[in-house]
Each structure stands twice: as structure tokens, then as C-alpha cells.
Design a protein that fits this description.
Bound molecules: adenosine-5'-diphosphate
Order of helices and strands: EHEHEEHEHHHEHEHEEEEHEH
Strand content: 15-25%
CATH architecture of the largest domain: 3-Layer(aba) Sandwich
Shape: globular
Helix content: 40-55%
CATH class of the largest domain: Alpha Beta
Length: 281
């Protein structure tokens, strides 16, 4: 069996156009503040694409670039200013922050209603209790991919490999909210393959190149690869793509699978936050 490829680039393009249409059809100009600390090249490139695609969709750019030696107090003051700025609907602090900064304290400072990355305790709590709120971008992008290719999540067995705040944990919550039976694996899981082989939906976010091979996959499963790694032979994910496509029913490529969905979800969250803020005023 050769798996159907899930083209995240295509769906992300469709979703970004939807966002642009939503903005054009309303009187609202949403504002997104990206906060970049220091000069890490990868973070710089990532923030630049978030800003470029936001502006292309009609979102106003309120970028802040702070020096790598910014103090905790100065960074928190910037977050406070953005919290009280009525033109700013979404705040995204690009991670990782330099080691001298307390990331948790910075995230905790963000107004949960502007938390377009869905990382504050309030956002995580809303998600855990299945209440409306802003949800982390990568896992919500994964759900959209599954919906788009017609995988009916309800009643399936879903396995998430990884339990990070950014991906694994919220991914498990989102699948649970859609009535999947969810198992979460992590670095202390014994016999990973025996667990992942039960999955109709397998989401891999472990940060380990090609961790998942053919022996981990139930025939016909939907396999979603959140990992991305630069190796000597190019980019690869947490899933051995060539092996997976022989067994799976659906599989995401790397690059061009989950990656583009993260930014598309960010734009959607920014518009959702803006609509909420305007309704309140
Ligand atoms: P990401 O940002 O992709 O979520 P993190 O490095 O923050 O990556 O988290 C990696 C997660 O993957 C952790 O929860 C960890 O327990 C899990 N993990 C790492 N290695 C393995 C492994 N060999 N098997 C299963 N889970 C793993």
C-alpha cells in the first residue's frame, strides 16, 4: 500500500486565503506583535515568515526586536505594553529565549486573550477543560490536516509521541476533545512500537530523527510527523518517510506537511482574537 500524502502547504495556503477574506470582509484590522529576543538565525527566519504571511493576509505588524542581553524586567515591560495596546490582538514571544531569561514568567505575563500561541496556563487550562480559548498552533494545524483529508477522528485510537507543552500535551487534549481514545508516549515509554501500532492516528513530536519506522505503524493509519531535522542528506522528520509511506494510509511529508500549518493557525488565532476584542468593546 502506498500512503496518500497530506499536502500541508496546499491546505495552509487555503487557510491563509480564508483569513485574508475574513479580514477583507470585516472592518477589523487585526494586529500581531511578534517579540524576538537576540539574533538566533533560525528564530529570525521563522519570525520573518510569520510577519510576512501575516501582513500578506491583512494583519498589522507590531514587531519588537530586543537585544540578546535584554533584562527580564525590560522584556516583561514590553509584554505589559503590548497587553495594554488596543491595536495589538495577538502576542507571540518567539522561543527559545536566551538562557538568562525566565521563559515561564514571560509567558505568564501575556494576556490569555492575546495568547495566539496558546501557551499560557489559562489557555492550557481552557483546552484541558474543553472550553473556548486560543489553542496552540501546531497541534490545531494537525487537527485541520486530519479533517481536510477526511480522517474521522471520533472513536479512533490516537497515539501522540511526545508530551511537550508546545505540541504533545495540547495535541492529546485536542484529539480527546474530538472523541478519540488517546495514549501519550514519551521518553520513558517501554516498547514504543507496541503502543504506536495500535494507533489509527499517530502524531509524532519527539524531536528524534526517524524515530518511527514501518514497524511502529498500523497498516492504513494516518501518520502525522511534527519533527523537522537538518541532516547531511537534507531535511527529515521524526518519521522515516520512505518506510512509513509503504504502510500508512496517510502520511505528512517533511518539509511541506505540518510546518506550514503552524503559521496558518497563528493567523487564524490572530483574527479570532481580534474578533473577540472588537465584540467586547
Ligand atoms: P517538541 O517541540 O517536538 O514537542 P520537545 O523536545 O519539547 O519536542 O519534546 C520531546 C518529547 O518527546 C518529550 O516529551 C519526550 O518525552 C519525547 N521523546 C523524546 N524521545 C523519545 C523517544 N525515544 N520515545 C518516545 N518519546 C520520546
Amino acid at each position: 500500500m502506498t500512503a496518500t500524502l497530506i499536502d500541508g502547504k496546499e491546505l495552509a495556503g487555503i487557510l491563509r486565503r480564508e483569513v485574508a477574506n475574513r479580514i477583507a470582509a470585516s472592518a477589523i484590522t487585526p494586529g500581531l506583535a511578534t517579540v524576538l529576543v537576540g539574533d538566533d538565525p533560525a528564530s529570525g527566519i521563522y519570525v520573518a515568515s510569520k510577519r510576512r504571511l501575516s501582513v500578506a493576509a491583512g494583519i498589522r505588524d507590531h514587531h519588537r526586536h530586543l537585544p540578546s542581553d535584554v533584562t527580564q524586567g525590560e522584556l516583561e515591560r514590553v509584554v505589559d505594553e503590548l497587553n495594554s495596546d488596543a491595536e495589538v490582538d495577538g502576542i507571540l514571544v518567539q522561543l527559545p529565549l536566551p538562557a538568562h531569561l525566565d521563559t515561564a514568567a514571560v509567558i505568564a505575563r501575556i494576556d490569555p486573550d492575546k495568547d495566539v500561541d496558546g501557551l499560557t496556563e489559562v489557555s492550557a487550562g481552557r483546552l484541558a477543560l474543553n472550553r473556548p480559548g486560543l489553542q496552540p498552533c501546531t497541534p490545531s494545524g494537525v487537527i485541520r490536516l486530519l479533517d481536510w483529508v477526511g480522517v474521522d477522528i471520533k472513536g479512533t485510537r490516537a497515539v501522540v509521541v511526545g508530551r511537550s507543552d508546545l505540541v504533545g500535551r495540547p495535541q492529546a487534549q485536542l484529539l480527546l476533545a474530538r472523541d478519540a481514545t488517546v495514549t501519550v508516549c514519551h521518553r520513558y515509554t517501554t516498547d514504543l512500537a507496541s503502543v504506536t501500532r495500535t494507533a489509527d492516528i499517530l502524531v509524532v513530536a519527539a524531536g528524534v530523527p526517524r524515530l518511527v519506522g514501518a514497524q511502529h505503524i498500523k497498516p492504513g493509519a494516518a501518520v502525522i510527523d511534527v519533527g523537522i531535522h537538518r541532516t547531511d542528506d537534507g531535511l527529515c522528520g521524526d518519521v522515516d518517510f520512505d518506510a512509513a509511506r509503504q504502510v500508512a494510509g496517510f502520511v505528512t511529508p517533511v518539509p511541506g506537511g505540518v510546518g506550514p500549518m503552524t503559521i496558518a493557525s497563528l493567523l487564524q488565532n490572530t483574527v479570532t482574537a481580534a474578533e473577540l476584542h472588537r465584540r467586547r468593546r
